[in-house]
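User: I would dearly like some help making sense of a protein record. I have put the entry right below:
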Amino acid sequence: MLRIAYTCLGVQHDRAGSPPATDCLLEPDAVNQVRLRVHLTNIGQATAGDTRLWLGLPAGVQVVRAEPTLIQDGLRQQWQVGDLAAGEQRSLYLTLQIPLNRTNGIAQGSLPTDVLVIETAQARYTNGAQTIDQTLPSGYTLLVRQAPPSINAQLALTLRCVEVLAPADPPTADCHLRAGTDNTVRVLAQLTNSGMATATQLVLRTQLGTGVQLQADAGSVVQPDGSAGVWAIDALAPGARQEAELTLVVPAGSFAGGQQVLALLTRATANYVDQADNQAYQSTLYQAYTLPIQPSSVVPAAQNVSFLPIVRRAANTVPNEQPMPDLVVQQVVVEPAQPDTGSPAQVRVTVQNVGTATATGFWVDLFIAPQPVPTGSGLRWDMACGLEPCQGIVWAVNELAAGASVTLTSDSGSFSAAYSNWDGQFAVPGTHDLYASVDSWNAADLARGAVPELREENNVAVLRAVTVSGALRQPANLQSGLLPRPNLP
């Protein structure tokens, strides 16, 4: 099974008087050249033989340079990756030309807020005698440099799962879909305007994932329209927020074998008139909203499972209750609090077992500004590189007793160097969020990791807004030389 990640490394343009963009914003009224990394990882347990990746680019986007070389295959670009062993990863570096001129470029008379860069991604590989086709996440976009937010409307959409209901199951707030059965999902949508201008004639269109259906609840402001939901708002003033609840039905036939996540919504776009300049805009507010899948084999039929909130006790005094560990990240600390790329820094992660049984053999990952962010097990730091160069730290914990805690440090010799990229200093200046994930990786069970726990949804913590000063530098130990990580330490 393959995973793909996209990272913008920089933008250059031909607009006179404007410097190159280091923030990866496309320059309006200019021809932009984008440096993009496509990172492919085999997260399965078997070799993906003769792997090939096809990338579909939108009309107007052209490949200027590719390392390694791409092959034009019809309307798509083909990357012949070759054999990809379990845990192995490869990177493709692209330079794309994106003309953003309103007269003869992609913009075509109006300035978009974002531009689609990768439209489709399709992989093909062999597993023994079997040939497998896998559709990979795409829809990768880059933002266009806009006027200051104090002038225009600034829209943002937040989606939050409220609960998942499945036949013969009580509602669960852990928001894991159940494979092999129909699921009904309640999602709360919040649309906010953080700008200083009112957005009028606003129409939000949310595209549904394959097989997903929007239930037409009486009185709901979001109504079905084919394979999408439409939310019309007359006006959204500065600082205003509106909420709507979506009831989504996911039929049992939507689940494919080996699938770990399922996209409920694949794209959300807003069309509106900005009262700051009385111009019509279209903005992409969400690329994909996914929920993890809990395989039907995870919970045996004979096991007594409660999805009610868990009440902590001093001891395991309930008859016939099976003792289980419960791993949480208590704290993430960086010293100094505002590090410099030219000076040593220490990262400390404190992990505690708040369950009722000993946890044995698990990994802990530290992510620096990851894309995507971790939400549980099944994601290693090197699969979510949001910066270039990409840094991350891995610790192996052999045992943690019930009630015990351990503080892991980034000091030399205290982490698993073979699976980490850390030389004692941060590499990329800026303001970054640091994520720590406990029981982060087990390719044999991506949903639960290596340790079955009382709760699987509390394994990630984040330290927000760590400001790193200094100049960009290149660490000596690049992640391209990482060894494949085993399922267990």
Observations:
- The radius of gyration is 24 Å.
- The mean pLDDT is 82.
